[in-house]
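Fig. S4 source data, part A: sequence.
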Amino acid sequence: MKSDIEISHATILKPVLEIARELGIAEEQVSLYGNYKAKIDLGVIDQSMRQDGKLVLVTAITPTSAGEGKTTVTVGLADALRKIGKKSVVALREPSLGPIFGMKGGAAGGGHAQVGPMEDINLHFTGDLHATAAANNLLAALVDNHIFQGNALNIDPRRIVWRRCLDMNDRQLRFIVSGLGGRVNGVPREDGFDITVASDIMAVLCLSSGIQDLKTRLSRMIVAYTYDGLPVTAGDLKAQGALTALLRDALKPNLVQTLEHTPAFVHGGPFANIAHGCNSLVATRMALALGDYAITEAGFGADLGAEKFINIKCRMSGLRPSAVVLVATVRALKHHGGVKKENLSQENLDALEKGLPNLQRHVENVTRVYGLPCVVAINRFHTDTEAELGFIADQCQQLGVKAALVDVWAKGGEGGTDLAREVVKLCESSGQFAFTYDPAQSIVDKIDAVVKRIYRGANVVVTVDAMKQAAQIAEMGLEQLPICMAKTQYSFSEDPKLLGAPQGFTVTVSSLRVSAGAGFIVALTGDIMTMPGLPKVPSAEKIDVDEQGNITGLF
């Protein structure tokens, strides 16, 4: 069986200028990064004569650590829609180097349903994540320099909340002491790093509608508090102009293509377990402006990425999905049924039945809480048996949703035409779109609504520190912002070992962070970390480059 990168290398891509021309984009609005990557001017959105494309959101059941192929299904669905005569465009997030060199590997889809050039997208791409890290770390440097140069803003070094960032899993940098070595080297203080995709600047980039909006949002970011407890912003440091300069080109969506030459905007990369988990707003709008169907995804399960897509991205932008695709796999349902990782390839209908409540809860959340039409995409793996696939399809029918078997990894768009036809039908149906909470509610009440309505938990415990932070956020007039839950992706609860569809559990909110620029409040739960660590055997150990410069081991 060929690997993802071998399949990618065997495919001849079209020049990206040709892809742009097919979308009606003028050549002067295309900034080339080689032959197969380009940035597209934001004016394309405003110049489009139509803005009424159908938005399709792809999400998933609670995943295993390897993921369930959500990006692969997203790409395959877009290709399949073209197979049945529909003009589709993909809008995806950019991969982070953290999981690429850590546990999951690449994030450009897989098999015959991926975007290319695969190795470029998975590695440095057009430099967006590097620009984000540079802007983040410039702001960190400005904060420390301001204190060193006399501290006119009266910043309390013990209350600096702006952390440095790095697009790599590195647990050693979670908590550090900086400024050592004498006065000339700065003011000693506790510091730390987040992974770039968890930074406020990444969230701001992905939720900005243009240059001026980007600059305004950057200026609102809170970096520290004074000795009197007042917030200090990037605007107070006069940093927003320089930050915008670093991010000017990064704000433009990246145009690439699938292996079947479907246009794909790959832009922005926030994680869904510690950030809002959606690609950039401008990329989504560009896909809607240029395609009849815009296919996008939200990270991890529908309790995380989809919830934030609805309550953060849709609330801020006015976007409304026409349909939702919920990706499920045999192996994930067996995992939730109690099967160990090494036994997931063995047929086990009893475990499938035990794991089914996880799928059922996600279906209910999509259809009853979010009020959206839904189809289950059963993403086929070569170890699945016909009995197992048939069992899931039958159970979906009993849940009142259609199921479509998807084999896009092996067959590309041809393996997703049944799903594509069902999506077209759903897009013509009417749902009753709804948010999960009212932004006017208190911070604790909004968290309570997510925990009880989406996770089906019984209680929320907010620590004393988090309650003090909530009171301070309210005093700043920011209590009306939506909530961005930072939670494990492996369970509805905060405990990654609590599988299936647990009930009666308690979620503890340990702290709150206000992302004033992005426009949401982050609630950290359980043992969630904003800087991941590498596993015992990192994927980096398998990656190499041969004498001809070809990369191997990237999957």
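Fig. S4 source data, part B ends here. The two ends are 13 Å apart (CA to CA).
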